[in-house]
Every structure is written in C-alpha cells, then in structure tokens.
Amino acid sequence: MTPKTIAVAGATGLVGQQILAVLDERNYPIKSLRLLASARSKGKTIQFRGETLQVEELTESSFKGVEVALFSAGGGTSKQFSPCAASDGCVVVDNSSAWRMDPKVPLVVPEVNPGAIQTHEGIIANPNCSTIQMVVVLKPLHDAAKITRVVVSTYQAVSGAGVAALDELRAQTRAILAGENPVCDIFPHPIAFNCLPQIPQSDAFIENGYSTEEMKMVNETKKIMGDDSIRVTATTVRVPVFTGHSESVNVETERKLTANEARTILGQAPGLVVEDDPASQMYPLASRAAGRSETFVGRIREDLSHDRALDMWIVSDNLLKGAALNAVQIAEHL
Fold first, then answer.
1. CATH assignment of the domain containing 53
2. Closest CA to 80 of 64, 67, 92
3. Nearest to residue 139, comparing CAs of 164, 169, 120, 114?
4. Which residues contact 331 (CB under 8 A, 6 or more apart)?
5. Would residue 333 show up in a list of annotated catalytic residues for this protein?
6. Is residue 115 located within the same domain as residue 136?
7. Does 280 lie in the same domain as 253?
C-alpha cells in the first residue's frame, strides 16, 4: 500500500487509542498522522512509532491534505465533522451510529461485504460492536444454507460504555466488597455483581419496547448481510466484564445444517476461530478473547425445538474487532 496521510478523530478515547495500536501492529503505511480530539484534550501528547505527537483540536479545517480519517468521537461529532472531511477529499471511516443506516453510506465488515466499500461517497460506517462479531459468523452460514431468522442475547462488556464506565465498575466492586453502598454515576443501577438489560445507559428504550442497541443489531444485520428478509430479534445486556462481548445466538436456516457441517463451514471462514469441545471445557471466553483480533465461536449444537436451527456462543474483543480493528481493516481495503 502507498503510505497515507491519516487522521484519528477521538484519538484520546478508548477506541481511539486502540485504533492507534492496531495501525502500529498491522504496519499500516503512514506518511503522516494527525491526532484530533475535543478542545479539552488539545496539547496532550501521545507516543506513536517512537515519536511524540501532539493532539490537535478537531475543527472543520482539520482534514485538509488528509486522505483517510478514522472517527471515534461520538455520533454528534461525526455528524458535524465527517461531511467537512469528505468535502476536503478525505475518506471517513466512522465508528459511531451517525451514518450506519444512511442509504448512501456503506456499512462494512470486511469479512462479510468488502465490495460495499467501493460504493462510498466519502463516508464509510463501522457497524455496532455486537453486530460485527455476529455477522462474521452468520455470513458463511447464510451462504451455505440461507438464514431466515436470528435470535440473539448479548452479554456486553463495560468497556463498550467508555473509560468512566470502567472506573465505575472498579469503584463499585471495591465498595460492595467493603460492605459499602456503590455509587452510580454512569449506569442507572450498580453494574458490579449485576446485569443490566439496558444499553445504552440513558435514553435506551423506544416505543416498541426494544432498546436502541437492540434495534441496531436488527437493522444493521440486514443491511450488512444485504438481505432484508432475515428476521432478527435481540436482547442486549451489560455485564460486569471489562473487555469482550459474548452472545448467545440461535440461527434458523432454510436448509438444515448439522452441527458438524456448521463447525466445518465456520472453521474455514475468515476471521473466525472455532473453539468447540465442551467435554474438555473448551468454548469461547471473554477473558481469552480480550486482546485478540479474531472472533470466536463454540457451543455449536442443533436446536432441540426446531429441526432447522442451531445454537451457538460467539465472543470477541469489543474494542478490537468490534471497533478499532474493523475500522483499520476498512482503511486497508481502501
């Protein structure tokens, strides 16, 4: 690849830091790197490939001469600044929800729909973290037997809610173990030693009773897979895990797939690792997936209540494949 002039918007956040780490680990060819964040982070320094780089304030003129901008700065920020970047000839890969369902913006997981990248008009959307790891598994099964319905329940790590949420989990854990009352600033209820069926932590629920996170999984899955006929329902839950989203997924197919067929298909699919030997206590774990780029799938078994359905357990690092890695993979395809 030809070295590029790159900007990272939201460079001081959890995902922004992961983007920088992934760019370095994958030896992405960079001619120059611009680190962008809000005014309160202006002047901070970040080490990258042996250099000390200063964080600049994100403005509408930040993208002149930039070829690719990796955004992880929130939906409102992306709505404001992504068009500015695109108008300056920069291609934006955006990690927020701002553009995902825009019909003019491709929503991309490179293992699933890389061809969609070529349809961009200056902005490419990175899907929701829980959607990404699921569709990496769904795509090869859909190609083999056509998926008709998906039922998913998620067990999502606290890191998906940001640095302050991780700090709250630590503080609440210490408080409860000391016999004290936990303080809730980020979450509506204690997250330590608890499970919260509410994502995001505020303004989560809509008129149909689903949360916005659940509807992201429903709508994004159809768009990425390129098949509106797939029926999807989701329940998303925050659990007291630092890193790594886990998902229980039930998949109905038009043609019956045996568990062994599914293991063979998934074992040959890009970006996937099959860990499926329950007799030896081998199955995907969030603790083992943390820091890994792959998506892990196991507990693959035939649904006893349906003759053309499979149950499985899917785990991935939500900050890597669920965010930073997927964005960098898109940039590599560019």
1. 3.40.50.720
2. 92
3. 114
4. 4, 6, 28, 68, 70, 93
5. no
6. no
7. yes
- Would you call 184 a catalytic residue per the annotation? no
**H/E stretch holding 25:** helix 14-25
Domain tally for the chain? 2
The active-site residue out of 84, 120, 142, 245 is: 245
Give me the domain span that covers residue 43.
4-127+324-333
Reported as a pLDDT band with limits 50, 70 and 90, residue 1 is confident
pLDDT tens for each residue of 97-122: 999 999 999 999 999 999 999 999 99
Question: Which two tokens mark 12?
Answer: 């001081």
- In terms of domains, do 85 and 189 share one? no
What's the pLDDT tens digit per position in 157-199?
A: 999 999 999 999 999 999 999 999 999 999 999 999 999 999 9
Same domain, 80 and 175: no
State pTM to two decimals: 0.95
CB half-sphere exposure, 169, CA atoms < 13 A? 21
The residues facing 68 across adjacent strands are: 6, 91
